Input
Amino acid sequence: MTITRPRQRTLFLCFGAFLVLAGMGIDAQIGSAYGSPSNATAVEETGPQIASKTKQALLVIFPYFSEMIFPEMRSVLESKGIKIVIASSTLDPVAGHEKMQITPDVSLAQVHIAKYDAIVFIQGYRYPGDNAETIRIAKECAAEGKVLGAIGMAINTLIKADLLKGKKVAGKSVSDFWIQKAEATVSDAPVERDGNIITAAGKGASTEFAEAIAAALTVGAN
Output
């Protein structure tokens, strides 16, 4: 059978159109499998989705930590849906001032600020305010603009980190002399929040302190 030139040209055009349409179908399938730029925004997290992610608070303790403050802090924060991570200078069980023992999740040397939304230093009866790792952590936390808390004698960490200049700080647990020397203002309130720094006077303020930490972690607070 002989195919004339006009008919031959028509067949070639039809075959070319078929190839174009087939190619478009393949591209659509590939786009569906691997995601296309137009669909990328559909799977991106929205503001509310990001805000709903679980917040993490790092609680820093040392041997002889207050067994009145720590359990209350943990209970209140967890009741607000905040995940608690415990850090200390060792990964061995840390004894409280009476009977409690807590096994830390991470050592202070391994703490990376980016993982946490808040860092909270918990008072102890032998609290080492000049610990180099806690001072580092406090400085990095402040530099990142994250929530930074200290209760009772743990406020010494913030003093040593030179973070209290011009801040209002809850007194009664740390000598007013040292707070004033840090160029901060002593407050009679049991809990003070100045920016992202939250301080509390001591064990009697643990519940209010925990509530303040939780409030600072709510959407838009920090």
